[in-house]
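Students often ask why we bother encoding 3D structure as a string. The short answer is that it lets us treat folding as translation between two languages. Here is a chain of 179 residues written in the first language.
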Amino acid sequence: MVERVVERGREPEPQETFYDFSYRLRQNWLKQRREGAVVLRGKERDWEQSRQGLIKYFCHPKFWEQQAVPYWSVFIHRIKKHSGKHVHQGGLGLFVLEGKGYTVVDGVRYDWEKDDLILLPVKPNGCEHQHFNADPSGQAAEWMAFIFNPFFEVLGAPLEQRAESPDWKGTTPPIGHVG
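And here it is in the second language, the structure alphabet:
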């Protein structure tokens, strides 16, 4: 006589409901706000030479999980001669920390110096801009950018590099390449 063996299949794992997922997400979000970094120390951040210029990132998507307040991009840009030129949406502030210079936004020059605030405008398709150091002694100018990324995302966040910083020696995708 042949014995018949019946194997019982595994019961499906209970599926997480959308509400439970949202609840878990909110709990993780609150934990991050309680335990994330509140003070970000400049001496713990490195300068990075990019095709846009010499930049020290404080808040960046790479660090968001470690911070009490994510979704911001905050960085210092040091300008020796001039930055690269690129296009992206405005709606951000650049606070001048040192030096003097000017920014060309869509072909119009705007002069600035230490303790000034540069506001890039929100415009259809973004605004083309480039920053220049105007200190005759050659001392570098510096400003700090404050960008709330969800605002950028809602506006479509175009980004197109049109010229590189003269200090950039690396290799990059061709100008105009995105992603």
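Translate back mentally: The mean pLDDT is 89. Keep this in mind for the problem set.
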